[in-house]
Give the backbone structure.
Amino acid sequence: MSASIDRLGDGLAVSTVFTDPVDMLAYRRDCSVVRPGDPDLVARVRDVAEVQAAVARAARERQPVYVRGGGTMYAGGINPHAGGVVVDTGGMDRVLELDLARGVVVVEPGIRFAALIEFLRPHGQTIGIVPLTGPAATVGGAVSAHALGSGSPRQQGMGDCVAGLEVVLPDGTLLRTGSAAADGAGFFQRYCIGPDLTGLFIGADATFGVVTAIALWLYPVPSSRDTVSIGFAGVAEAGRFLAAVQGAELTRNTWYAAGYEGSAVRARVAAADAAADLDALPGFCTGFDLGGDAAAVAGDRARLLELAAHHGGRECRAFDAAYFRRLRYDETYWYSYAGYFTRSRCAILMSSLPCDRLEAFVATVDGLRGRWPDYPWGAAVVLCRRGLHGGVLAFYDERTAWDAVTPAIDDAADALVAAGCVPYKSAKQWAPQVRGFGAYSATLGKLKSALDPDGLFAPGNLGL
Ligand SMILES: Cc1cc2nc3c(=O)[nH]c(=O)nc-3n(C[C@H](O)[C@H](O)[C@H](O)COP(=O)(O)OP(=O)(O)OC[C@H]3O[C@@H](n4cnc5c(N)ncnc54)[C@H](O)[C@@H]3O)c2cc1C
């Protein structure tokens, strides 16, 4: 590790600083369709003191601050649209504490999910949610974006796995939330006095501070796992089934569940088995990844099939073998968004919807296919504890179609809202809709002004 030296002036020490445009090329953008920005300076920080030094320098120069973890997000949060300082936390990657008795692991923000999983494996422990982007994505980025976890009814979302945070605020204060607010108490309880201050920074996309430590709850690695894929003639029946699953609290052992259009089911099965009878495949297919003790997994599997039968559904072994089971076991870590991003550059827009809007959601994507035939459109829904997250995906060639795909995504945003869906994450892309949120966006704005009166932290990332 290189030593901190006074690279920022006035005694502000950071071990690595880039100002050369070539060195800063990799800091212009994440993996999204959102336009790149141009930083003035990149500070690759190694510890809390260096974060505070970088924040102090930005305050001194009245420059914006953007924060970067792994840069794998597809929402543009790290893109320094207003220029200024990019704080790269990727080098803060240590496990700070493993407390098996309290069931908590405390990590620095730059640790990669894959490294954390490997660290926990010998202890028979895991964390609730691991992204497909796990080898490169950082825990700090995932928590700050809170974009992960759609599809994990058991855990709900990435933010729901967080027991507490340590954050450097825009004025340089070091804040610890939850039980760690009390000196010496450490991280074990998310809540303390008053509202959930931990939650203020989850999904904040660096607009309220730089996260410097994260406490995550631990879960034992399940002793048994299984998948089941269940097909339905139509989307409406599948929506009713998914609502019934949630109503019956049949999600406690579901680490991941998703729904796939018939066209995707046929394509996956055909790719795996040229002789498959494609006409026999369902119009819509759901998939559940179950984990727990063997009896619980077997029991839930049987109950899911029984409940599905009431809605005209039946097991679809062909899709499970060709795709869902392989996705869950072979190709990815425990959590993923259907493997799309391993295949192509794609623009993604996420929304939330109640199960009874599933048919409208799929119809909306069909409408986009008709209006924007140049892009192969994909739709994927994942199950939450209540309702669904629906991802609309437009595959495009980044070299030729970056400008062209933007209006298609804007159209998708309007069409989704018209279909009864709600913006979820990616505020830069949903900005026109977020501004219409009245009291909600006004309150966000007031919080932002209170903590960051000069508006230097990640301008644009709240969509305000
Ligand atoms: C709507 C949506 C849904 C997604 N769903 C899935 C999914 O289902 N499965 C999957 O595998 N992936 C999913 N992703 C992608 C996944 O969320 C990202 O790959 C991963 O979480 C980002 O980690 P990162 O370290 O690369 O973050 P980055 O891209 O580096 O940063 C993400 C955000 O966090 C901020 N940030 C980073 N570090 C800090 C810090 N230390 N302090 C404060 N702010 C910080 C950044 O400024 C940025 O706003 C989804 C993304 C989106 C937009």
